[in-house]
Amino acid sequence: MVIEVTKIRMTDSEAPYYRVELATGDKLLVPVTRDGGDVLIPVTRPEDINEVLASPPQDLSSDFRKRTLDIEQKVSSGNSLQVAEALRDLAWRRYSSKLSGSDIRLMDKARKTLANMLVLKPKMDLREAMRRLDGMLEHAVAAWSSSG
């Protein structure tokens, strides 16, 4: 829910931002667009997220720093499909090998971020979003493990 529009001074100019409160109580600042419409990041349909989660996972780098940077970029992108990719790839890594402490933290962050994005859909609360997301992941991991 957008709770206010505020201006933030960056270098020599001010830019308007939406202050958004998520279902978890977390708050975000989202830039107001200048392309003719003040539209926040579009809500992705749960079916689109499920499609990404069900797609074949990508191998993550064995280099800890590179893997962490790649996943953090996707999770912080604000793009629900990139967050879903990060979650899918971490879920596969958890199934096929072992997650580091940082991987576990990033997987939890990706899961919460994606659940918050799902909550933006009408008639879905955070608990339902988490349950639905976990079901999608469980189904996807079962499909990957039986095919590989």
List the helices and strands and how they pair.
Blueprint: E1 2-10, E2 13-21, E3 27-31, H1 46-54, H2 64-75, H3 80-96, H4 101-119, H5 126-147
Antiparallel strand pairs: 1-2, 2-3
Helix pairs in contact: 1-3, 2-3, 2-4, 3-4, 3-5, 4-5
Task: Explain what the structure shows.
This protein has 148 residues and is an alpha+beta fold. It has two domains: 1-40; 41-147, CarD-like, C-terminal domain (Methane Monooxygenase Hydroxylase, Chain G, domain 1, Up-down Bundle). 53% of the residues lie in helices and 16% in strands. It contains five helices and three strands, in the order E-E-E-H-H-H-H-H. The protein has helices spanning 46-54, 64-75, 80-96, 101-119, 126-147, and strands at 2-10, 13-21, 27-31. A three-stranded antiparallel beta sheet has the order 1-2-3, with no helix packed on it. It is globular. 25% of the residues are buried.
Top-tier CATH class of the largest domain: Mainly Alpha
- Alpha carbon gyration radius: 17 Å
The total count of helices amounts to 5
Classify the fold: give the CATH topology of the largest domain: Methane Monooxygenase Hydroxylase, Chain G, domain 1
The CATH architecture designation of the largest domain is Up-down Bundle
Backbone structural class: alpha+beta
Widest sheet, order of strands: 1-2-3
Task: Please mark out the parts with pLDDT under 50 across 5 or more consecutive residues, or reply none.
Answer: none
Morphology call: globular
Query: What count of domains describes the coordinates?
Result: 2
Mean pLDDT: 81
Distance between the termini: 42 Å
